[in-house]
Amino acid sequence: MKKECVLVSGGAGYIGSHTAVALVEAGFDVVIADNLSNSDMNAVEGVRRITGRDIPFVNVDCCDTEAFARLFEQYDFGSVIHFAAFKAVGESVAEPMKYYRNNLLSFMNVIELMRRYGRRNIVFSSSATVYGEADTLPVTEQTPRKPATSPYGNTKQMCEDILRDACKAYDNLQGIALRYFNPIGAHPSALIGELPRGVPQNLVPFITQTAAGIRECLSIFGDDYPTPDGSCLRDYIDVTDLAKAHVVAIKRMVEGGCKESYEIFNIGTGNGVSVFELVRGFERVNNLKLNYRVTPRRAGDVPAVWADTSLANTELGWRAERTLDETLASAWAWEKHIRNI
Ligand code: UFG
C-alpha cells in the first residue's frame, strides 16, 4: 500500500514539530511547511535528527495563495494537519486584524486548495479556549461554546465553523478538529520543545525560564479563585501525547473510520491541576526551588477548565500516557538543552 503523506503546516512550531516526529514514527511521509514567523529551522533540524529522515521543508506563508498552491503541485499528500496560526491571546486583543487575516485566510486557503487539488483529510488545531467559562466541568465536546473573549479565541471558533460547513458541503472533504487543552513538555530527546519569543505568556515556559535564571520571579496570577487552593485549574497535556492524537486522527480518516464528515475531539488528560500543584510538582521532580510570588488575577483567565476525554478514548483509542512528572522533567531538560545549562 502506498504510504500516506501528510502536509504539516506550521510544522516548525511547538506542537507541529512534535507531531511531525510522531507521524514519521507511525510510518507516514511528512512535508513540513512553515513561514518561520514564530519558529526557526532548528525545530526542523531537530525533527530530522530524531527521525533520521531528511524530511522536506518548504518555507511558505499559507496566506500566499499562489506560493501555497505550488506546494500542492509539488507534493502528493492526501492529508493536511493545519497548525500554522498566530496564538498569543494578548497580542490578538491589541492587533485583531493581524489575527483575523492570518488565521482565517490561511485556513480558507488550505481548504480551497485541498478542494482544487483533490486532497481529502484535514485536522485542525482548535483549543479549549472555545469553551470559555463553561457552566459544567469537565467539558465534553457537547458543552456549549461560549462567546470568544479574544480575537485569537474567535479565530478558533470561526475556523471550526468554516471546517464544519466545508465538510458538510463538499463530498470529498473530511475534517477533525482537535480541541487542545494546555500543551506542555518536550520530546524526551530534548531536541525539540517550546521556544517562545520574548517574555513567555504561558505558565510552563515562564517556570522553566525562571528556573534557568532568565526571569527573576514567576508571578502566580491569583490565589483567590473558587478552587481548592485558590489558583486556577487547567488540564496540562503532554505535547508528545498530543502529537499522537494527531496520528490517530489521520489514521481514522485514511482508514475510513469517521462517523461524520466533521468530528471534534477534546485532547487533554481529564485532570484539573492547579498552578500551585504544577509549580510544586516542577520543583519536586527537578529538585530545585523556584522564585515565585502571588500577584493579582490576569484578565480573561477562567477559574477552571479540564476535559472529559471519553470520546477521544473510545473513538480514537487515544489517551494521555505520560505522567505529569515525566512531562515536567522533559520541560526542564529542554530548557537546559537550549540554554547549555
Ligand atoms: N499563569 C500564571 N503565571 C504565568 C502564566 C500563567 O500564574 O506567568 C497561570 C494562568 O493564570 C493560568 C495558568 O497559569 O491559570 C495557565 O496559563 P497559561 O497562559 O499557560 O494557559 P491558559 O490556560 O491561559 O492558555 C491556554 C492556551 C491558549 C488559550 C487559552 C484560553 O495556552 O492557547 O488557554 O484560555 F487561548
Radius of gyration: 19 Å
- Number of β-strand runs: 13
Low-confidence stretches: none
Bound chemical compounds: uridine-5'-diphosphate-4-deoxy-4-fluoro-alpha-D-galactose
Mean pLDDT over the full residue set: 97
Oligomeric assembly: single chain
Query: Alpha-carbon distance between the termini?
Result: 46 Å
Largest sheet: 7 strands, parallel
Strand order of the largest sheet: 3-2-1-4-5-6-11
Task: Assign a percent range to the helix content.
Answer: 40-55%
Strand content: 15-25%
Mind explaining what this structure looks like?
The protein is an alpha/beta fold and 341 residues long. It is 41% helix and 16% strand. α1 crosses α8 (239-254) and α9 crosses α11 (324-339). The longest helix is centred in the N-terminal third of the chain and has 21 residues, at 96-116. The chain is globular.
What tags apply to this protein structure?
single chain, 341 residues, alpha/beta, seven-stranded parallel β-sheet, two-stranded parallel ribbon, 11 helices, 13 strands, 16% strand, globular, binds uridine-5'-diphosphate-4-deoxy-4-fluoro-alpha-D-galactose
Write the layout of secondary structure elements.
Blueprint: E1 5-9, H1 14-25, E2 29-34, H2 41-51, E3 57-59, H3 65-74, E4 79-82, H4 89-94, H5 96-116, E5 121-127, H6 151-169, E6 174-180, E7 182-184, H7 203-211, E8 218-221, E9 233-234, E10 236-238, H8 239-254, E11 262-267, E12 273-274, H9 275-286, E13 292-295, H10 310-316, H11 324-339
Parallel strand pairs: 1-2, 1-4, 2-3, 4-5, 5-6, 6-11, 7-10, 8-13
Antiparallel strand pairs: 9-12
Helix pairs in contact: 1-2, 1-8, 3-5, 5-6, 7-11, 9-11
The structure holds uridine-5'-diphosphate-4-deoxy-4-fluoro-alpha-D-galactose (UFG).
